[in-house]
Amino acid sequence: MVKPRAQMTEVAMYSPGKPVEELQRELGLSRVIKMASNENPYGSSPKARNAMMEEMENIHFYPEVTAPVLADALSKHLNVSSDRFIFGNGSDEIIRMLTRTYVNPGEEVVMAEVTFPRYRTNVFIEGGVPVSVPMRDGTHDLEGMKTALNERTKMVFVCNPNNPTGTIVGEQELLRFLESIPPDVLVVLDEAYYEYVHSGDYLESLEYLDQFPNLIILRTFSKVYGMASVRVGYGITQPEIVQELLKGKEPFNVNRLAQVGAVAALEDNEFLENTLKKNKEGRMYLEDAFKRLGLSSFPTHTNFIMVDVKQDAAAVHESLLKQGVIIRPGHVMGYPTMLRVTIGTEEENEQFSRALEKTLEAMNV
């Protein structure tokens, strides 16, 4: 057997939330809800769906390599010049482009200890050294991350809001951190959940692109826009960095349907506002339910909540599965007594809270 690269022997396949269909087959359940993968429970914009269906007429053509129409639409939407955008098959692919383009073997990349796992994986695959800094109350310890920098550091990842904790770092704290990073170290701000943030103490990073030429901002259409399956992520940075990333980008990585769907999604403010309104209502419902059960949770600025159930997360996860509820257990993310639950529809939130209460009652007997 041909041996893979040494790094690949130590990399595990990404493990997503358990599929609904799989759990239905395993347990013979007719009703299963999935609150594990931070998908939009309200679907996607009707305008986006219609645009993608119309584009089916052209599926025999390759898509445009740099998605110029989408770049122009985002340029108008965000008031950023179109040459600052790089598009990926989800923002995960842009993370891979970044490590492929900039991380040499032996160079270090600093990140939080509990954050999006693909940072670590992609750094490791390229032969880089992931440097993890412990969290502080579920939030990035920016001072600790700054201390971890040295002459071998090539890149820093800050997930803001952070996945899986849902927390943010304050505006001034993040700004001071950016000011402290040497110009030859790339700073990647992953803002996949940007639209959900409901705090005035949040750095509007787009305003600082010119002040920090080493800044790269990642966003996506997978979350609030509900387009997870078609895979459209984007980075915003200096045109010179975009040109370097394009060299290693797969030629037709964002398909035609995804490109036109994303453009149409930007035009549907009604869908966006409705999603944010319902997400807020769901967040408040779940936070109240947790308080009633005597449970604490991290303050979230996303479409998910990480709650401490004060029990073995794996056991609670298994009990919820038997009741037809799929969540993400915290023991696989460094929090052995916590669950990460996606904020669902009103009906889903109620079913989850009932199942959780039933589980905790049985465990505390």
UniProtKB/TrEMBL annotation:
<protein>
    <recommendedName>
        <fullName>Histidinol-phosphate aminotransferase</fullName>
        <ecNumber>2.6.1.9</ecNumber>
    </recommendedName>
</protein>
<feature type="domain" description="Aminotransferase class I/classII large">
    <location>
        <begin position="31"/>
        <end position="355"/>
    </location>
</feature>
<dbReference type="InterPro" id="IPR015422">
    <property type="entry name" value="PyrdxlP-dep_Trfase_small"/>
</dbReference>
<dbReference type="InterPro" id="IPR015424">
    <property type="entry name" value="PyrdxlP-dep_Trfase"/>
</dbReference>
<dbReference type="InterPro" id="IPR050106">
    <property type="entry name" value="HistidinolP_aminotransfase"/>
</dbReference>
<dbReference type="GO" id="GO:0000105">
    <property type="term" value="P:L-histidine biosynthetic process"/>
</dbReference>
<dbReference type="Pfam" id="PF00155">
    <property type="entry name" value="Aminotran_1_2"/>
</dbReference>
<keyword id="KW-0808">Transferase</keyword>
<dbReference type="InterPro" id="IPR015421">
    <property type="entry name" value="PyrdxlP-dep_Trfase_major"/>
</dbReference>
<comment type="similarity">
    <text>Belongs to the class-II pyridoxal-phosphate-dependent aminotransferase family. Histidinol-phosphate aminotransferase subfamily.</text>
</comment>
<keyword id="KW-0368">Histidine biosynthesis</keyword>
<keyword id="KW-0663">Pyridoxal phosphate</keyword>
<dbReference type="GO" id="GO:0004400">
    <property type="term" value="F:histidinol-phosphate transaminase activity"/>
</dbReference>
<feature type="modified residue" description="N6-(pyridoxal phosphate)lysine">
    <location>
        <position position="223"/>
    </location>
</feature>
<dbReference type="InterPro" id="IPR005861">
    <property type="entry name" value="HisP_aminotrans"/>
</dbReference>
<dbReference type="GO" id="GO:0030170">
    <property type="term" value="F:pyridoxal phosphate binding"/>
</dbReference>
<comment type="subunit">
    <text>Homodimer.</text>
</comment>
<comment type="pathway">
    <text>Amino-acid biosynthesis; L-histidine biosynthesis; L-histidine from 5-phospho-alpha-D-ribose 1-diphosphate: step 7/9.</text>
</comment>
<dbReference type="InterPro" id="IPR004839">
    <property type="entry name" value="Aminotransferase_I/II_large"/>
</dbReference>
<keyword id="KW-0032">Aminotransferase</keyword>
<keyword id="KW-0028">Amino-acid biosynthesis</keyword>
